[in-house]
Specification:
binds 4-fluoro-L-phenylalanine, mainly alpha, two-stranded antiparallel ribbon, 18 helices
C-alpha cells in the first residue's frame, strides 16, 4: 500500500479546513439569524458557543481522524477498538453525502447566476429607484428564480437547467478531487479562500458608500440583549455546528490529513475565527443595500437569488456597477460552496477507496469518484426535481430537499458531535488523546486540558439537552 494522503503545508491545511467551514451557511443564514436575534448580542453568544462547545467537538473529530489515519468509518473503529463504533462513522459519511446532494443543487444555482451576472442580467438601471420600482424589480427577479427552479425552460435535450448545473457542479468537484488531497483540494482552497476573503472585502468597501451602511451595520452589530431568548442559544448552536461542518465526517476525514507536527488547537481556533469573520463580513456586504432601499431583510435562497439581484440592478454609478458587483458576489458564493462540498465528497472518497473492494483490490480515486458521482448525482437530481411544481418527491410532508436538510441538521449532526466527544473524552486513553492534541508534548498542555475537560463532561450534556429541546 502506498503512502496515505496528507495536506502538504500548514497554510494549505488551514485553507482547506476553513474552506469546508465557510460556506453557504455563512453567507445567507448567519447574517440574518444574527440580525434578528440581537445583533452583537447574538454574535457574542455565537462566538462563545463556537469556542466552548463546537471547538472541543472539532478537536475530538480531528483526534479521531488523525489517530485513526483512515476514513471516518475506520477511524471510529480504530480509536474505540470496537467494531460497533464504525456504524457512527458510516452514518456520518452517508449523511454527509446526502447533504452534498442538496448542497450541489444550490451550488448549481450559483453557477446559473454567475452566468446571468456576467452576461449583464443584473446590470444597473439608471434612475427611478423609488420603493415601488425596487419592489417591482424584486418581484421580477423572484419570478425569474421561481421559473428557473420550477420549470427552468429548456436546455440541451430539454433537461431543466437546475439539473444541468447541479451535475456540472458535482462533476467539477470530482475532477478536482481526482487530483488528490494535496494537489486537488489543498491547491484549490489555497487560491479560493484568500480570493473569497478579498472579494468579500471588495463588496464591503462598495457597500460602505451606500446610504444605508450605518443602518445595515447596526442591524448586524448593535447589541440588543432583549432579543435574546433560550431559542437564540439553540439557533447559535445549530448554526455553529452546520457552519463548522461538525458531525458530518468532514472534519474527521480532514483531521486524518493534518500533519503530525501541526497543532490541532491552533488549526481549530483559526478556523473558528475565520468562519465568524467571514459571516460578519458577508452581513456587512449584504445588509447595507437592503437598508438603503428599505426592502425587507430575508435569508436563504430568497435573499441571495431574489432580493440581492434586484438590489444589484439598482446600484448607482452606471450599468457596469451592477455587472461587477453581481459577478463578484456569485463567484464568491460559488467559491464558498465548492470548498465546502470538497470536504463532504472527500469523506465519501476516503471511505470508498479504503473500504470497498472489487476482486479483493481496493479502488483507485478515479473509480471511487465515478461511483460517488453516480450515487450522489442521482440523489441530487431527485433533490432538484423535488423543488419543482407538482413534484411527488415528498418525504414526511416536506420536499426531499428540505427533508434531508432537516434530518441531517437537527438529528445527525448533534448526535455525531456527541458521539465524537464521548469517544475521545470517555473511551480513548487520556494519554493517547493528549499526545494527539499536544503533538507529543510540543504544544501547550494547559489549553489542551481545558478542551479535553469540556469534551469529556460539558459538551455531550449541553448538546444532548439542546438536541432534545430541538425535537420538542
Ligand atoms: N459548513 C458548510 C456551510 O456552512 O455552508 C456546510 C457543510 C459542509 C456542512 C460540510 C457540513 C459539512 F460536513
Amino acid at each position: 500500500m502506498g503512502e496515505r494522503n496528507q495536506f502538504a503545508s500548514k497554510f494549505g491545511t488551514m485553507a482547506a479546513i476553513a474552506g469546508s467551514a465557510v460556506g453557504l451557511g455563512n453567507i445567507w443564514r448567519f447574517p440574518y439569524v444574527a440580525g434578528n436575534n440581537g445583533g452583537a448580542a447574538f454574535l457574542i453568544i455565537y462566538a462563545v458557543i463556537c469556542v466552548l462547545i463546537s471547538m472541543p467537538v472539532m478537536l475530538s473529530e480531528f483526534v479521531i481522524g488523525r489517530k485513526g489515519q483512515s476514513n471516518t468509518y475506520r477511524s471510529f473503529i480504530k480509536s474505540s477498538g470496537k467494531k460497533g463504533w464504525g456504524i457512527v462513522g458510516a452514518v456520518e459519511i452517508f449523511a454527509g453525502l446526502a447533504i452534498l446532494a442538496f448542497y450541489c443543487v444550490v451550488a448549481g444555482w450559483s453557477l446559473e447566476y454567475i452566468f446571468a451576472a456576467v452576461t449583464g442580467e443584473f446590470a444597473s438601471f439608471s434612475g427611478g429607484d423609488t420603493a415601488e420600482i425596487i419592489n417591482e424589480r424584486i418581484a421580477a427577479m423572484g419570478q425569474r428564480f421561481d421559473l428557473f427552479v420550477g420549470q427552468g425552460g429548456t436546455h440541451i435535450l430539454s433537461i431543466p437547467r437546475p439539473i444541468v448545473w447541479t451535475i456540472v457542479f458535482l462533476a467539477l468537484n470530482c475532477i478536482v478531487l481526482a487530483f488528490g488531497v494535496s494537489k486537488g483540494i489543498e491547491r484549490c482552497s489555497k487560491f479560493m479562500i484568500p480570493a473569497l476573503f478579498l472579494l468579500l472585502l471588495v463588496l464591503v468597501i462598495m457597500s460602505v458608500r451606500l446610504d444605508g451602511f450605518a443602518a445595515g451595520a447596526s442591524f448586524l452589530l448593535k447589541p440588543n440583549w432583549s432579543a435574546v431568548t433560550p431559542q437564540t442559544i439553540m439557533f447559535a448552536l445549530g448554526q455553529s455546528f452546520f457552519s463548522l461542518s461538525l458531525g458530518m465526517s468532514a472534519m474527521t476525514t480532514y483531521g486524518s490529513y493534518i500533519q503530525k507536527d501541526q497543532s490541532l488547537v491552533s488549526v481549530a481556533f483559526i478556523v473558528v475565527i475565520a468562519t465568524i469573520l467571514m459571516a460578519v463580513l458577508a452581513g456587512l456586504a449584504i445588509f447595507p443595500s437592503t437598508f438603503t432601499y428599505g426592502v425587507e431583510v430575508t435569508s436563504g435562497p430568497g435573499l441571495v437569488f431574489k432580493t440581492l439581484p434586484a438590489l444589484f440592478a439598482s446600484l448607482p454609478g452606471g450599468p457596469w456597477v451592477g455587472i461587477v458587483v453581481s459577478s463578484v458576489f456569485f463567484i464568491l458564493l460559488f467559491f464558498a460552496a465548492v470548498t465546502s462540498s470538497f470536504s463532504l465528497l472527500e469523506a465519501g472518497t476516503a471511505y470508498v477507496t479504503e473500504e470497498w473492494h472489487i476482486a479483493r483490490k481496493t479502488l483507485s480515486r478515479p473509480v471511487a469518484l465515478t461511483i460517488l458521482f453516480v450515487l450522489v448525482g442521482t440523489l441530487s437530481v431527485f433533490c432538484a426535481l423535488s423543488q419543482m411544481e407538482g413534484t411527488s418527491l415528498i418525504v414526511m410532508g416536506e420536499s426531499l430537499f428540505d427533508f434531508i436538510d432537516k434530518l441531517t441538521s437537527n438529528i445527525i449532526l448533534p448526535l455525531g458531535g456527541i458521539a465524537a466527544c464521548i469517544l475521545v473524552g470517555q473511551l480513548m486513553s487520556k494519554d493517547v488523546v493528549f499526545n494527539e492534541l499536544t503533538s507529543n508534548g510540543q504544544f501547550n498542555a494547559k489549553l489542551v486540558r481545558f478542551f479535553y475537560w469540556m469534551a469529556r463532561y460539558v459538551c455531550p450534556i449541553v448538546i444532548f439537552y439542546m438536541f432534545i429541546k430541538g425535537l420538542e
